[in-house]
Amino acid sequence: MPPEALLFNGGGYTIEVVIGFLDEPVIAQVRFTPPGAKDWASLPRDLLRIEKFDMKKSILIMHFSNKTIQICRLHFPFLPTTPGASSL
C-alpha cells in the first residue's frame, strides 16, 4: 500500500503527516511550513514521540521535543478546528 498523508492548516502553518504501512500504519515523516515559508521543513523522526495513533478511531497524539535544533523560532500550539480532530 502506498503512503498516505494528512494535511493540517492553521495560523499560517501547514503540517503534513506522512503515513506508511508495514503490518500496521506508522508515522513515516512529519513536515511543516511556517507562515510565509516556501519550502517544507522535516521534523527529525528521533525527536517525535507518537503517544497514540489509531486510524480506525481517527486519533493521533504526537509530541515533538526540540531543545537543540532550531527549525522555527516560534513556539506555537496547533489546535485544529476540524470536528473530531485532536491537537498535534
What are the key terms here?
88 residues; mainly beta; four-stranded antiparallel beta sheet; 0% helix; 45% strand; globular
Quick gist of this model?
The chain contains no helices and 6 strands. It has strands at 4-10, 13-21, 25-33, 41-42, 48-54, 59-64.
User: Which oligomeric state applies?
Assistant: single chain
State the low-pLDDT regions, or none: none
Query: First CA to last CA: what distance?
Result: 25 Å
The neighbouring-strand order within the major sheet is 1-2-3-4
Order of helices and strands: EEEEEE
Mean pLDDT across all residues, rounded? 77
Calculate Rg over CA atoms.
13 Å
Q: Please report the number of helical segments.
A: 0
Describe this structure in words.
- The chain is mostly beta strands and 88 residues long.
- It has a domain at 4-64.
- 0% of the residues lie in helices and 45% in strands.
- The protein is built from no helices and 6 strands.
- The protein has strands at 4-10, 13-21, 25-33, 41-42, 48-54, 59-64.
- The strands form 2 sheets. Strands 1-2-3-4 form a 4-stranded antiparallel sheet, with no helix packed on it. Strands 5-6 form a two-stranded antiparallel ribbon.
Topology, element by element:
Layout: E1 4-10, E2 13-21, E3 25-33, E4 41-42, E5 48-54, E6 59-64
Antiparallel strand pairs: 1-2, 2-3, 3-4, 5-6
